[in-house]
């Protein structure tokens, strides 16, 4: 039986673990809070607390490694605590994956980027991710794959709730465009990579239709049969520092590599199909 050790077993990682056949896979997932152990068990994972629990037995058992935990002020938390232990098991691992972000590309004024585009992040979050990618790549013998994720949506992370509650706004910043990805497509790309490992390869995870964020909100309102939420100029919008940072960069992200190398056919190739599915299944 194969064993996946998943650091930071959150939204995307749980989608992957739910996709792996339970008869073939043992999944061990970490969380910072023991209060979330029930969620991890429900997704089919054995929960461990990190930091806190002894991870050495899980590392010895692992055949595959997934890192979703984001970097902190001291860099990547997993490598900060377990670099030596991971270096010891690296040569025998079959696959390792690091979930990064398309924020590492920086701002391109709406132009297209791909995996070979130089990394010029302009936000602190993007800079931290770039540094974390480089840190993981420095672990000798690790069969590492880097996955740069666009904006994630899916069950529980759709726009419908805010639209229904009248809290949604269409924030207008001319020229602004985002790429996004449904969580089920993240899961299928990771599963395809596990089946076809190609260490030190980088993959963009996004759909086929980069779009202005206000278009997504408008379409959600149309699907609900509601009036369009109000437009608010970006300069007048009261946004948190985190939300405002997302508007600091504009780019369209190419996804050809996941299709050509991993044979992936997106379940939700654009936000329209993804939002329709969320609404149809009543999971918004």
Task: Describe the structure concisely.
This is SDR family oxidoreductase. The chain is of the alpha/beta class. 36% of the residues lie in helices and 20% in strands.
Structural account:
With 284 residues, the chain is an alpha/beta fold. It has a domain at 2-154 and 181-208 and 254-268: NAD(P)-binding Rossmann-like Domain (Rossmann fold, 3-Layer(aba) Sandwich). 36% of the residues lie in helices and 20% in strands. The strands form four sheets. A seven-stranded parallel beta sheet has the order 3-2-1-4-5-7-11, sandwiched between helices. A two-stranded parallel ribbon has the order 6-13. A two-stranded parallel sheet has the order 8-10. Helix 1 (11-19) packs across helix 7 (183-195) and helix 8 packs parallel to helix 11 (271-280). The chain is globular, with a radius of gyration of 19 Å. The chain starts with a strand and ends with a helix. The relative contact order is 0.14. The mean pLDDT is 95. Keywords: NAD. This is SDR family oxidoreductase.
Question: Mind sketching the topology for me?
Answer:
Elements: E1 2-7, H1 11-19, E2 25-31, H2 37-42, E3 45-49, H3 56-61, E4 64-67, H4 77-89, E5 95-101, E6 112-113, H5 124-137, E7 144-149, E8 151-153, H6 160-164, E9 170-172, E10 180-182, H7 183-195, E11 201-205, H8 213-224, E12 231-233, H9 241-246, E13 252-253, H10 256-262, H11 271-280
Parallel strand pairs: 1-2, 1-4, 2-3, 4-5, 5-7, 6-13, 7-11, 8-10, 9-12
Helix pairs in contact: 1-7, 8-11
